[in-house]
Amino acid sequence: MKAVGFYRYLPIEETESLLDLTLAVPTPRPHDLLIKVRAVSVNPVDTKQRSPQEKVETEPRILGYDAVGKVVQIGEQVTLFQLDEEVYFAGDVTRQGSNAAYTLVDERLAARKPEKLSDVEAAAMPLTTLTAWEALFDRLGITPEKDRGKSLLIINGAGGVGSIATQLANLTGLKVLATASRSETVEWTKKHGTTIVLDHHRSLPEQLRKQGLETVDYILCLHDTTRYFHIMQEMIAPEGKICSIVELSEPVSMSLLKDKSATFVYEFMFTRSKYQTDTMIRQHEILTEAARLFDTGVLVSTVNQVLAPFNATTMKEAHRILETGRSIGKLVVKGFDENE
What we know:
- By secondary structure, the chain is α/β, with parallel strands linked by helices.
- The protein folds into 2 domains: 2-125 and 271-339, Medium-chain alcohol dehydrogenases, catalytic domain (Quinone Oxidoreductase, Chain A, domain 1, Alpha-Beta Complex), CATH 3.90.180.10; 129-266, NAD(P)-binding Rossmann-like Domain (Rossmann fold).
- The protein contains 12 helices and 16 strands.
- The longest helix is centred in the last third of the chain and has 15 residues, at 281-295.
- The N and C termini lie close together (7 Å).
């Protein structure tokens, strides 16, 4: 089968940073689905996994997590799916990824593709939807019953996770604030349901006060946790909660969180699959419910850029775009059939 991968961890400009490969079709394990891939989304995690290091792989490393495709073979213990069903999923960072004509995914991490979304629209959504859903509902514990009317600040509202997190937060009745600065990112965040946009190039606490707010009840940090940590401590309400998806790059003081009895928690979408937790099936459940919301029009896809065909040249361009840090929404690569 055709695939895009690498042996050496190199800057994207290097010739061997991503390569066109021909590999054997993988064999499903007991809970696996073998998927014939039709479209994939490229995420910041892909570029982080490929980032330069001295290590050299003896077998090619295949990235890619978001994907849409058709089930063509199932493991002997699979119970959730049948052959020929269309599915979408975000996969497992510890396994070979979806940047290939065929890929494997544990059935507990997949769900039936939203019927009313195209392959491109659906491929954009699994990883960011799971991340936002887990952050808001599993980590921060937000519910419509207790949180309607409360405030949520999303740092980096125009990114892939921010775009869907805004939509999900609106379903709970939260007042959503988000950071953005360029005219196109401000427009994008408002389009997806942000009530107030704050310019991250200016003082966020000062802008918040101008909106008549001293603090916010929840913060979802989707960019540079180290840079925003002190500011988030200042802006979070007493007994409020902060969730981040970005690792700290240096030690920080948490004294103000202690003074406010505030919570700081991380969200990593791959935790459940990486550690084979008892809650792995939760991702199947989340994506199933999300598919229903996409099909009823309650949620909309956040795809904003599409590249084709699927090959190393296209994937390099996708990585270059993401590494600028200026992409809006989601980037999808299609055109798999042209490579068979």
